[in-house]
Amino acid sequence: MTDLFASEPQPDAPRPLADRLRPQKLSEVIGQTQVLGPDAPLTVMLASKALSSLVFWGPPGVGKTTIARLLADETDLHFVQISAIFTGVPELRKVFEAAKIRRQNGKGTLLFVDEIHRFNKAQQDGFLPHMEDGTILLVGATTENPSFELNAAVLSRAQVLVLERLDLRDLELLAQRAEQALDKKLPLDGQAREALLEMADGDGRTLLNLIEQVTAWDTDGPMDSQALATRLMRRAAVYDKSGEAHYNLISALHKSVRGSDPDAALYWFARMLEGGEDPRYLARRITRMAVEDIGLADPQAQAICLQSWETYERLGSPEGELALAQAVAYLALAPKSNAGYVAYKGARALAKQSGSTPPPKHILNAPTSMMKDQGYGAGYAYDHDAEDGFSGQNYFPDDMDRPSLYQPVERGFERDLKKRMDYFARLRTKRET
After folding, report:
1. Which of the two ends of the chain, N or C, has the fewest CB atoms closer than 10 A to its terminal CB?
2. Omega of the bond prior to 318 within 30 degrees of 0, cis?
3. CA distance linking residue 249 with residue 257, whole number of Å
4. Judging by beta carbons within 10 Å of its beta carbon (0-12, 13-18, 19+), is residue 366 exposed, middle or buried?
5. What is the per-residue pLDDT for 1?
6. For residues 115 and 81, is the Cβ–Cβ distance under 8 A?
7. Pick from 286, 298, 288, 281: which is nearest to 327 by CA?
8. Which of 226-230, 240-244, 305-309, 362-366 is predicted with the least confidence, judged by mean pLDDT?
9. Three-class SS string for the chain?
10. For residue 57, what are the β-bridge partners?
């Protein structure tokens, strides 16, 4: 029976460099030592002959397909590759039926599913019985966070391994391997060679495609980085405005602001803009940073964010983005305090815990005689008539111990607020005694 998606190119057919340099053994894979090193998960599994179903999570061009294919070779499993983009339920049934027949004949199947997160919940559930009875050993590949995109049932039966983008050292090794295969040196000087590696942006397949283009050029001598940039377009950065990269970068921006690093904050802000992020989303998020991480330590921070937001709305892109960038720099250098944020969360928790406990009667209005008879408003002290404009009365429910929710820090404007709180605390103690 012919397997789906298993056709091979004819020997004399032209093959891309990336296909010609595909490793033939796991030891030839460049990078990914965290999963292929001496004590790494895959090495341990293969040594103990206990390979389990896997999910490879990582960016494009880092070896997910290659490693899956080599795992099949190492374990003597028949390799079948499908893509969730092009495969529907009828094709899946044929794949599972072929795997069952193969198993009856004593041969196991490693089913590699590219872009596995593209399958819906019902389709993902369809893998479960075949994983459990040993019909297939599933190896999925995804560029999205599996905890968000894959069913819990699939994740409970598979180990998630994270593959990382290739660093410049890995890419240089790959470039040297390509030069050996082509029997030709790259026509680039040192800086241009490094620029080429950076253009690949951690993607080995992209690098090999770029090398194939560069080595085909007719040049008089080594080119510099400017000549290279003229002939090649830089690879667009990996960024999905609704995916993992989106949340990673906004987290990096937020934490850089919180960490008072304006250079890092502006870098991540620029990375999001370069990735096509909506500046209005960034305006909303930086305003939230002002409220959450700066608060009353610098009350002006929130106003500056709102002003930059309004400036962007009036100017649009790209001029208005400068106003947002300036707000980011201001937030990073502003004094930090989450005291208001902590106090708010504490108040919400306390409100939920105390339920419908009524306020003390002395701070209730008494618009009717019946309410006056019930003691509403009795004993209320009008603060403006009190010494120092402060009565020191209790405003919490009668049966509740006074909580301490807002704890201003000794930074920025909150230093003055703390002095005021300490002052009123002393007055309150004086009134009580």
Report:
1. C
2. yes
3. 12
4. middle
5. 38
6. no
7. 286
8. 240-244
9. CCCCCCCCCCCCCCCCHHHHCCCCCHHHCCCCHHHHCCCCHHHHHHHCCCCCCEEEECCCCCCHHHHHHHHHHHHCCEEEEEECCCCCHHHHHHHHHHHHHHHHCCCCEEEEEECHHHCCHHHHHCCHHHHHCCCCEEEEEECCCHHHHCCHHHHHCCEEEECCCCCHHHHHHHHHHHHHHHCCCCCECHHHHHHHHHHCCCCHHHHHHHHHHHHCCCCCCCECHHHHHHHCCCCCCCCCCCCHHHHHHHHHHHHHHHCCCHHHHHHHHHHHHHCCCCHHHHHHHHHHHHHHHHHHHCCHHHHHHHHHHHHHHHHCCCHHHHHHHHHHHHHHHCCCCCHHHHHHHHHHHHHHHHCCCCCCHHHCCCCCHHHHHCCCCCCCCCHHHCHHHCCCCCCCCCCCCCCCCCCCCCCCCHHHHHHHHHHHHHHHHHHHC
10. 142, 162
Please, which pLDDT band fits residue 33 given cuts at 50, 70 and 90? very high
Radius of gyration (C-alpha) of the chain in whole angstroms: 32
**How much is the pLDDT for 338?**
94
How far from the centroid of its chain's Cα atoms is residue 217's Cα?
Answer: 39
pLDDT per residue over 202-235, tens digit each?
899 989 999 998 988 888 888 888 888 888 866 5
Distance CA 215, CA 183 (A): 10
**Beta pairing class for 137-142 and 109-114:** parallel
Rounded Cα gap, residues 380 and 371, in angstroms:
14
The predicted structure's pLDDT at residue 244: 63
Distance set, CA 405 to CA 272, 298, 336, 431 (Å): 36, 19, 18, 21
CB neighbours of residue 303 within 10 Å: 12
Residues in the chain: 433
- Contact predicate 311/280, CB 8 Å: no
* The two three-digit tokens of residue 220, written as one number: 């008089």
The reported pTM is 0.62
Q: Which residues contact 305 (CB under 8 A, 6 or more apart)?
A: 283, 286, 287, 289, 290, 327, 331
Nearest to 360 by CA among 350, 373, 339, 375: 375
Ramachandran angles phi, psi of 301, nearest 5°: -60, -45
Nearest Cα neighbor of 350 from 393, 291, 397 is: 397
Mean pLDDT of the chain: 88
The predicted structure's pLDDT at residue 366: 81
